[in-house]
Amino acid sequence: MVLNASEKVLVSSSADPNKLVSDGNRVLKASEKLVSMLVKPTDTYANVSFSLDTVEVQIFIVGPNATLDKIPRLNTTNSSVDIDLIGIAKNNDDRSAAVAFMSYNTMENLLKPDFFNTSDDTIKTMMSTVISATLLKTTNTKLTKPVNFTLKHIREFEPDGSLSCVYWNISEWIVDGCSVLETNSSYTVCSCVHLSTFALIMQTSRPSEVREH
To answer: Domains of the chain (ranges plus CATH)?
Structure first.
């Protein structure tokens, strides 16, 4: 109910940037808190997933006796993530770990691409759904290796545009610790050294007559 109610916040077209940021942060925090309730102890591994109009959620849990021959991939409709959960679990006292991967379908209405502050005056367009990956109920949250996200483009990519893998840092989108691994016309793979809320933003230059004006 709460996750669906957040839709009412997400469609609020407030012009006040501070309200947008505050509402966005509240939705992220509430969603994370709710899905953490779904983490239950397991001996080997378990997963939970559900899909609403506003958000898709994938939770993967590994326990002390989990054996996986490859890094698990968590998928939502427009994105996926590869995370070394076994490696993270080995560094925890109880040798278990859990990750929640969420894809927010309308979050760009709040955490707008304009909150990506760059030195050059460009048009900024959100090219992916906003996603978040969080380690839940995990004491040691240090990553053993960078996490790779595959983000499907939700709009047409403009050939003269430049793409940035960004993460949400309280009040703005920034690129620290994230880079583009590969890209084509339909998707981009981002690599990040930490977990957070992520997106793909395209920058295109403004038409010259607008600049001169």
So the answer is: 2-212 (2.60.220.50)
